[in-house]
Amino acid sequence: MLTEVLPTPERVLAAARQCFSSNGFHSTSMKTICKACDISPGTLYHHYPSKEALIQAIIAQDQERALTHFRDPIAGEELVDYLVDSFLQLAKEDQAQRALVVEIMAEGMRNAEVARMLEEKYQAITELLTARLSEAREAGVIGATVDLACAARLLLTLNYGTIADAEALARNSNDMFTISLKNMLNGLLQINPPA
Amino acid sequence: MLTEVLPTPERVLAAARQCFSSNGFHSTSMKTICKACDISPGTLYHHYPSKEALIQAIIAQDQERALTHFRDPIAGEELVDYLVDSFLQLAKEDQAQRALVVEIMAEGMRNAEVARMLEEKYQAITELLTARLSEAREAGVIGATVDLACAARLLLTLNYGTIADAEALARNSNDMFTISLKNMLNGLLQINPPA
Q: Which residues of chain A have a CB within 8 Å of the CB of B166?
């Protein structure tokens, strides 16, 4: 297995992801995770003292991936296509990875600690996305009256809805879906607004 | 308790909703549900032979609520405000009810039977919503090139993202959020499109 060559913390996280994704957060015990990556409980607790610590580390990985996606400036005229493409890519993502994102969302609805972790992730992503939108506005692409932070948060909201519904959208993943999404974002960002 | 005057199946469903919402689907046993509504296992299994049967009944209740919302024609010029208002109302919904919707979404990501139930619900809602959009197009409000089924599905996607993120949106629930959402829907539905 490829994961066997990873350092222990990464190997544990990969196993935890798989267990949480298949069986949910509550039905997965620390013991199950030990078995899945063939380590002792002592080693597991040394790296991750609780299931919450594992979730925190998984959220941090997901956050880093999202931040990487928006770290570099995007040319204003390419912004909407870049965003639309980000949504389309979700449908191609690993099913287990998407299931885990929704599982963590569900946990965040009833566990204040997880809710706080998720909110930190959302804040970090919307902050970076707002910076990208701000550059596009300076380039004259985005309408002057758009509330950029609000638009960034709505893009995130649509993103998480899409993760949960990606397979259905993939079935419709034709030109019409791309066009509809583009119309939606053009409206949100007031690109080529009516005179 | 109010629920004590309900007929048994409704009383069981109310208890199941509460248990699933607080502890998740997997951590809730049929026994826990029996205790929560003070009935015997025999009575529970008579009405709902499995946890899946309970989820199916909960999904059917949620579906009926959504369908009620879109059953009557909406005057074309009021359509976007009606939709925006539907999104804003989500933030005011009971937290436990929203948590349960996300919990069922998470279950649908790993349980094919639940995925099928959800897809049936989504199809029923988008079908009715498409009928409303179609009337608005006949009234000349929605752009002629919009794919109505695709637009309806994207509205549903945004809706489910909003359910998971409703509290954050409620914190920002100011005029800017309403305007941003309205811009997004105007774009999607090509209302007052640029010449």
A: none
- The pair of structure tokens assigned to A157 is 């909201």
Can you tell me the ipTM of this complex? 0.90
Residue B152 domain flag: yes
pLDDT category at A176 given cuts 50, 70, 90 is confident
Q: Output DSSP code: residue B71.
A: S
Question: pTM of this prediction?
Answer: 0.91
CA distance A187 to B5: 49
The H or E element spanning position A189 is none
| Co-location of B180 and B132 in the same domain | yes
Same domain (yes/no): A25, A65? no
Containing structural domain, residue B23 = 1-49
Residue pointed to by tokens 């690109």: A191
**CA neighbor of A17 nearest in space, from A123, A109, A97:** A97
Residue A194 lies in a domain: no
Same domain, residue pair A134 and A38: no
Interface test with A, best of B154, B155, B159, B179 (most A CBs within 10 A): B154
